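If you are new to this repository, start here. Below is one unmodified record pulled from the training split, so you can see the exact layout before writing a loader.
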Amino acid sequence: MAGPLMAENEVLSSITQEVQTVFANAKTSVVKIRSNDKHGRCVGSGFFIDPNGTLYTTYAVGGESNDIVVESGDKKFPATRLVADQRSGIAILKVAASTPFIPIGSSHALEVASPVITVGYPMDLPLTPTVGFIGGFDLKYLNRFFTTTHIRANLPVQRGLSGAPLLNTAGEAVGILISGIDGGSACYALPIEAAEKIRHDFIRFGEVRHGWIGITVTRNPENSAGPWIDTFSDTSPATQSGLKKGDTLVRIGDIPIKNPEDVLNGSFFLTSGEEIDVEVLRNGQREVFSITPAVHPKSQKMHTATLESSPLLGDSLQLGSPR
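And here is the target side for that same chain:
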């Protein structure tokens, strides 16, 4: 019995050391955010992503609020909102200070059962670490679609953790906590790549540029390839692209398409004015068409999608982000 018990203790000790190291390295970069909106007082978490005072939080905390104050240790800074993006569910804020920051990681390296950690301010309490595991990668929750795949973490959350970083065991940010589910026993996090898409749009163009191609797709009944292109929206970029009704959609930019739901991922990473390749299968041959997405006509709205006929590229319904 001593052997298995000793091995178990060693595993627990190793996990404890990893969590303590991640917490120690992240704690100076995670902040409490206070603000006001039309419903009253908002309190949430956020984290610095560069040494110049730029930070991520959720739209619920920083998207439509005013009098935003960032608390870092015993310091308080008024914050300027750079970006409020309802479609992704995040806001990007900035304070006038040199700051520590959390390095950006990759959510693509995560797998089901990968350990993850979050650090934030639950229930207006002191900074707290929470440990859990990846439960899945979902495009919808209770028949409602996200705008892109979200990370489902079996990690308990309380009020105030919205906007906290989801960290891997190397202490890198791989997501942003967006909402709790099932009474707070688990949570959804926006993958960090999706947040970075929003930030890079702002850096390059001074605004978020959600792209739009303007096609609908339907499920391929043969289930042997991707979905079929079904219809084109009038005056959309796709109408003059060379794509045809009945083409099997294989890839949008760098995103492979295997079913209608994948179109949501492909469309989320479109940037208006930035040419991308769309790959299709036509008569047994692969063909690639270059398309320049237009500005999404409904980028600030949310829509219901169905599995049998996906929405226009870029349209979907995002799960709301409670405080």
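Two things worth knowing about this chain: Confidence is low (pLDDT under 50) at residues 300-323. The domain at 211-295 is CATH 2.30.42.10 (Pdz3 Domain).
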